Each structure stands twice: as structure tokens, then as C-alpha cells.
Amino acid sequence: MGDYSALAQTPGFVRVISSQLLARFPFGMMTLGFVMHIEDMHDSYAIAGIALGAETIGAAISGPLLGRLLGPLGVRRVILSSAVIGAIAIALIGLFYMPPALVVFLALIVGLTSPPIQSAVRTLYPILVEKRLLNSVYSLDATAQELIWVVGPVLAAFGAATWGTGPVVVAMGIVQILGALWFASNPEVGALKIPKSSGKMGKVLKSKLVLTNVIIGFLMVGSFSGVEVGAVAVADKTVAGLVLAALSVGSILGGLVLGNRAKTKWALTKFLSIIAVGYLLYLFNPADPIWMAFSFFVAGLGVAPAFAVLAATIANNIKMNDTAEAYGWINTGQLMGYSAGAAMAGIAIDVIAPTAAMSISMVFGIAAVIVALITVSITPAFMKVKAE
């Protein structure tokens, strides 16, 4: 815990990580909030699903684009302008009844204007903290991210039951603006100057390190969607929520205990293997929710540490003028992985059985381990890799 104590004593660190957590918090509420509200508005899960898909596509497109603009336009300008536009679109969805096409369009705008908080803060960390603490800071960042996905859906469901779905959606927009204002007001963020990228859009993908990171992120996050879809299909909604919470609890514990232990080139492979082992354990008793929760907890132990290593490799080995765009592409890969995994899991459930969704998770999870093994020389924890 010595590294975490050192981080807490780093000037500005607690303020920066707390503010970025609040700025990103609405996305933990968004999936459930949008689905509940749009379904309530049009009495159609299909429309809700299409709108959520539009938001995901928008976010996948905007990640690298807005990340790249952080340099030439300035971090504060990009984050605040995108946060305000997106919040207005969110509020419109929450406040007014509108035809399905307009709802889908506004959801797309929400995605296209997703504030690049993650790209900005992960570019800032190497400047803010000592290099020896980078793995610990990215592990803490990934662990904090899990809190978004644990607390966010719970708040969305509680708010919808108490005040209605519209106020929940409006609250998401308000939190987005407040979080973005707090994050942008940090002097460390204001002082962050990202050099303008010298290459064309997408050139950063020529780096083997970035491309590998995108592929592994695609596979790892794709495996999560199978877990989520499968849990809902196998168990009732209340139990499914508790089972999925076990995955996040495992990730939080893994991030705090294992995340700062990524000291060798095999760290990423080990963490991804933990995730795959958790998925495999599920096979021994797939109908038992307690066993399912235990299996997901085991898998979760590797999640935050794996994310931490992937983020640290970019910070350690990619030039600063390319890191924000690189993180944007990585986020795009993860979003596309989630969408692909969810679609395949849904098909597996319809064609085979509810438990078949986990086979999709296992395929994605094992593929991630294989890619990590093949590329172990490209994605070390601390070793320098020449950016191409």
C-alpha cells in the first residue's frame, strides 16, 4: 500500500482522480437510464436498444476524434464544449416526449459528444506522478472506474423507482456538466499542453503497441458483455444484479491488491488468464447463482489490473502528442468489442440456451490470453517499446 500512500500525497492527484470520476459517472447510469426511460416513453425495448446502440456508435467514433483535438484546441475547451452539448441532448431526451427517430438522433449526439475525460486524464497522469508509480495510478484509476459501474446502475434504478425515469436522465446531464467543470477547473488540467499530433488521423494505429492494445481491449471487454447478457438470461433481474456486482467487487479488490504488482512482461498475460479461469469455473455449475457469483468474482480479480497494464504501456511507450488519440482508439475498440460480444451472446441464447452466452465470454477471454502471449514482447509493463 506504500505506492497508494505516495499517490495520495502527490499534490493535486486526489483532486484530479476524484473529479474525473464524477465527470465519467453518468456513463455508469446511462445504459440502464436510457433503456428504462426510452422504453417507458415508447413502450418498446427495440427503440431503446437502437437508441443505446446509436449512443455507443457515436462514442466509438468520437473517442479518437475528440482525443486528437485535445492538443490543438486545448483540453478545457474540448471537454467543456463536448460536455455541454452532450448534456443538452441528454436533458432533451429526459424532458420531452419525441418520436423515435429524434430520440435515436439525440442519443447519437450524446455519443458523438462524449467528453474525452479518460484520454485527457490518462495523458496527464505521467506528468502528475512519478514514473515508478504509474502502474499503481492506472490500477487505482481502473479500480475507481469499477465504482462507476457498481454504483451507477443502482442509483439509476433507485432514482427511477423513486422519482421516475425522466428525472434520472436529466440528472445524468447535470452530473456530466458538474463533473466536467470540476475536472476542467483543476490547475493541473489547465496547465496540460498536449503537443499537436504530427501525423494524419489514425497513424497512431501503425504502432504495434497501440494496435495490440486495441485488439486485447476489444476481446477483453467483449467477454464482459457475454457475462452480463448471460447473467440476465440465466437468473432473475435481482439475482443477476448481485451476480454482476460480484465481478465488479472482484475487480476492485484485484485493482487494489494486484494492480501495482505488474512488474514483469508477463503481467498482462497473468491477469487475462485470471479472467479466463473465472469464466471456465462457471462451467462446473452453471445453474447455481452462488457459484456463478463466485466464478465472476474470480474473473473480476484480473479485470482492473489488466486495464491498468494496458493503460500504463501506452503512457510509458507512446509519445505524448499521440497518447490522447491512442486512448481514444482503445476506447473505440472496447466499445465495439462490447457490442460484438453482446450481439453474439444474444444469438447464442436464442439458438442454443441461456448458459451458452458464457461460451462467448470464454472464447473472447481465451482469445485475449492468446493475443497477450503472442505479443508479450510488445506489451510489457515497464520496458520501453519504440513507438513506430
Helical/strand content category: mainly alpha
What average pLDDT do the residues reach? 84
Distance between the termini: 35 Å
Order of helices and strands: HHHHHHHHHHHHHHHHH
Portion in strands: under 5%
> How many helices does DSSP assign?
17
What helical percentage do the residues reach? Answer: over 70%
Unreliably modeled segments:
382-388
Name the CATH homologous superfamily of the largest domain.
Answer: MFS general substrate transporter like domains
Which outline best applies? Answer: globular
Describe the structure.
Helix content is 79%, strand content 0%. The chain has helices spanning 2-8, 13-24, 26-42, 45-73, 75-95, 100-112, 117-128, 134-163, 165-185, 187-190, 208-234, 237-257, 267-282, 289-300, 303-317, 320-351, 357-374. The chain has 2 domains: 1-194, Growth Hormone, Chain: A (Up-down Bundle), CATH 1.20.1250.20; 200-388, Growth Hormone, Chain: A (Up-down Bundle). The chain contains 17 helices and no strands. Helix 3 (26-42) runs antiparallel to helix 9 (165-185). The relative contact order is 0.15. It is globular, with a radius of gyration of 20 Å. The chain is mostly helical.
Nutshell version of this structure?
The protein is mainly α and 388 residues long. The protein has helices spanning 2-8, 13-24, 26-42, 45-73, 75-95, 100-112, 117-128, 134-163, 165-185, 187-190, 208-234, 237-257, 267-282, 289-300, 303-317, 320-351, 357-374.
